[in-house]
Amino acid sequence: MKRRDIIEFEVGKMEFGGTSVSMLGNREIHMKGGLTGQKVKASVKKTRSGKADVKMLELLENSPMETVTPCKHFNACGGCSMLSVPYEKQLEIKEKQVMDLFLNQDIFGFQFQGIEGSPQERLYRNKMEYTFGDEVKDGPLTLGMHKKGRHIDIVTVDGCFLVDQDFIKVLTSTVEYFNEKDLPYYRGMSHKGYLRHLVVRKGVNTKELMVNIVTSSQVDFDMTEYKEMLLSLDTDAEMASILHTINDGLADAVQCDELRVLHGRDYINEELLGLKFTISPFSFFQTNTKGAEKLYTMAREFVGDHSDKVVFDLYSGTGTIGQVMAGAASKVYGIELIEEAVVAANNNAKLNGLTNCEFVAGDVGKTVKNFKVKPDLIIVDPPRPGVHKDAIRDIAGFGAKEIVYISCNPKTLVLDLVEFKNYGYEVEKVKCMDMFPNTPHVETVVKLKKI
Q1: What is the pLDDT of residue 172?
Q2: What CATH class has 6-61?
Q3: Per-residue pLDDT tens for 307-334?
Q4: Fold adopted by 89-120+282-450
Q5: CATH number of the structural domain 127-272
Q6: 92 is an annotated ligand-binding site residue
Q7: Is 286 annotated as a binding residue?
Q8: Is the pTM here over 0.85, yes or no?
């Protein structure tokens, strides 16, 4: 077997994160994507001793697990790799994948409380970031998601199962409107063009909608008519915020050089477990609102009685978890790197009348060691790369009796748990929460106790 060879095989074991490992003869085949039992055709990208990395070219035969009819974009869009699998089976797969990661790091002896399913397995997303482009070269304007395995081609996902009809109406009306205007979309290779992204956010519990059209500054276009078109849509939620973001950055990401408010305000409101939060166009908020309520309730149960305790909320974002815990705590201190999120967290605390919350901006690994206060409880909710080793050392140095770790990436979670063990913390209990049905991702909550 050598590079660029075309091979056919049956997909074997699915690993966390959407990869698979199969056997072909005596060689281990690693591939992005794939469901156990599928038969696929793939191209060899790289070989090494006893192993090969391949890219799927064609699905030859479905897996016996695939008994659900997916959306019409399933084979083109790369968003929902498990949509064709019954939801209960998805939960089984994710639970086993997480437990395998724990066993591979020899983490034993804890109470495993299984996996909680999302309250909604479809229509659960409160945010979508769409990209302008075309599905085929020089074809009509499209607006949606990147095609599976492609960096350029965009498919208009007007039949997406993850969002409700408000998202679909905004998406389809926007692409129809700009198709008529014949404006060029922004091309990442040449950095020329105008239309870049469309970001839609929804307050699920407040019924407020935000639409943010993102363009370059290369065309002077009046968005008044577009705004009026959006306001004429028959949406379930109130059109509370229509924004125009100017972004001349070179990266294929939504950044802001200038923000123009076309209608309403530059934020929407949301409510979570009885608390109020303002969501700006660029602030982080869990994309599954009903799932987040379940996740934070789970974390609160893991924390248990924390009355009159000092709580550290590390990687605090907009302060959601810290504020959920603030009702019984004597004091909550939050640390977050992104200054805008810290401002939002402090504003949200004021909005909720919480006088015992204080959020500060800084890198957790550097800022936490400067705190003079000793915490009784530490909550850690890091980004996907996990917690830096130096930060683990400093966090453990406080000697808190309990640490609750909320992870969006169990691969880095288990590595961090090994590090915490070196500082005298053992895993007491673990529970998974499926925040992202039909995708390979899952959240995991862990309670650590000081030995």
Answers
A1: 98
A2: mainly beta
A3: 889 999 999 998 999 999 998 899 999 9
A4: Rossmann fold (3.40.50)
A5: 2.40.50.1070
A6: no
A7: yes
A8: yes
